[in-house]
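thought: user wants a sequence for this fold. calling inverse folding tool.
action: design(structure=
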């Protein structure tokens, strides 16, 4: 069950309802420690304060006033990936994600005004539809000019931050023309409204187009509603629930006449707080396909990476395997270690590049052993991060969204 989001962005010090709600959630933790072996940061640092149980105790201290909001507390809470691998492991059903979002909102509200403004501006630039082209142009400039080399030579850009920025700049592309599909009035097997997302459109510019072409082939009526905006997940996980709620409201208005289908599991998980959103693989598996549709065989191996939002929040990664198994001859295998976050985790890889690179190294090692032709994932951040790490390792594995692979096989069967 998806927990209700915590509303508003006021300080808990001034909003005792917010503090009480968080303390109530935290009180559900019986400190059994079953979650500890499932937590990537606990496994890396072997430190109670880097575990779900330890962080819950820190949040209890923060919200009750027993602990100051100092740098060490901030570091331990900030190191959490919000991967939510601790949730399925918890016998007390502690809603850890909601708790951590609430604690981050509290800490954000206590920041000085100028720091809150800067943080808001940074996220708004990253997630606004109009920013995509300038961001992609900046990435192209970074790739082609000597900026990266110069920054490195002057010691301004150290490893592994350089590796993270290089990877994102290499992946980020100018998005194609905005899709404006409108369903016609003919007979259809189903209908849907496609959610496009924000930065995902630049990190995986072909995915929306591929989804549109797949639905066209399956005779699904597809609209791409105007007025849709960023889902707000990055705002919620970075302590800005008020802004996240405002974005959810705008999307609820844009999709008031549509069943929402999203290609990114993280966006779908966020949209579900307000809308009955469906992840695209689940939607395509559950929709009856016209009898005449053929899928061309593909004698290749596809490894499935399960993003945390898909595995731990939507809890429906089986839909990805079921969809890919409709491609004849394709060897579909789960990537070892899918229960552990790859380190991308929204904006986490920018703020914690060391942890992000360390966690991705395990995935690359598994992929080197598995030798797949493709790595498929339903999250654009994971795709960008893993594609960059695979490229550094010299592994020729194409990183794709499942609908991109399906689209190729649907149209090569003509
Ligand atoms: S498994 Fe649940 S109840 Fe046990 S320590 Fe972890 S969060 Fe608390
Ligand atoms: S969300 Fe992930 S990183 Fe954070 S405490 Fe839970 S398992 Fe650990």
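)
observation: tool returned 414 residues.
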């Amino acid at each position: 069950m998806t927990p209700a989001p915590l509303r508003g962005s006021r300080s808990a010090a001034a909003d005792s309802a917010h503090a009480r709600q968080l303390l109530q959630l935290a009180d559900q933790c019986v400190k059994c420690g079953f979650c500890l072996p499932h937590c990537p940061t606990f496994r890396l640092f072997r430190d109670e304060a880097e575990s779900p149980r330890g962080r819950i105790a820190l949040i209890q201290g923060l919200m009750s006033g027993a602990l100051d909001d100092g740098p060490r507390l901030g570091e331990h809470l900030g190191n959490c990936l919000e991967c939510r691998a601790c949730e399925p492991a918890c016998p007390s059903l502690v809603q850890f994600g909601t708790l951590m979002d609430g604690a981050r909102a509290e800490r954000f509200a206590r920041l000085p005004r100028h720091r809150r403004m800067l943080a808001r501006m940074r996220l708004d630039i990253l997630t606004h539809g109009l920013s995509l082209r300038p961001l992609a142009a900046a990435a192209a400039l970074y790739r082609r000019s000597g900026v990266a080399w110069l920054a490195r030579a002057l010691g301004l850009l150290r490893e592994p931050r350089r590796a993270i920025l290089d990877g994102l700049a290499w992946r980020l592309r100018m998005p194609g023309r905005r899709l404006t599909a409108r369903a016609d009035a003919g007979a259809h097997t189903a209908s849907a409204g496609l959610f496009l997302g924000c930065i995902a459109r630049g990190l995986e510019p072909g995915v929306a187009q591929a989804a549109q072409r797949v639905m066209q082939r399956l005779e699904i009526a597809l609209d791409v509603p105007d007025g849709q905006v960023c889902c707000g997940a990055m705002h919620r996980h970075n302590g800005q629930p008020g802004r996240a709620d405002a974005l959810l409201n705008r999307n609820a208005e844009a999709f008031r006449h549509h069943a929402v289908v999203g290609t990114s599991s993280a966006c779908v998980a966020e949209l579900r707080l307000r809308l009955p959103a469906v992840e695209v693989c689940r939607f395509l598996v559950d929709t009856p396909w016209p009898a005449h549709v053929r899928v061309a065989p593909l004698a290749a191996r596809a490894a499935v990476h399960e993003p945390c939002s898909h595995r731990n929040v939507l809890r429906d990664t089986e839909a990805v395997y079921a969809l890919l198994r409709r491609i004849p001859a394709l060897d579909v295998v789960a990537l070892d270690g899918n229960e552990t976050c790859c380190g991308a985790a929204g904006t986490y890889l920018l703020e914690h590049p060391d942890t992000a690179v360390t966690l991705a190294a395990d995935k690359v090692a598994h992929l080197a052993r598995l030798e797949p032709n493709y790595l498929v994932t339903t999250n654009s951040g994971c795709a960008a991060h893993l594609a960059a790490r695979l490229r550094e390792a010299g592994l020729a594995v194409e990183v794709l969204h499942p609908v991109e692979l399906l689209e190729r096989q649907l149209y090569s069967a003509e």
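thought: summarizing for user.
answer: Here is the designed sequence. Residues 285 and 323 are 6 Å apart (CA to CA).
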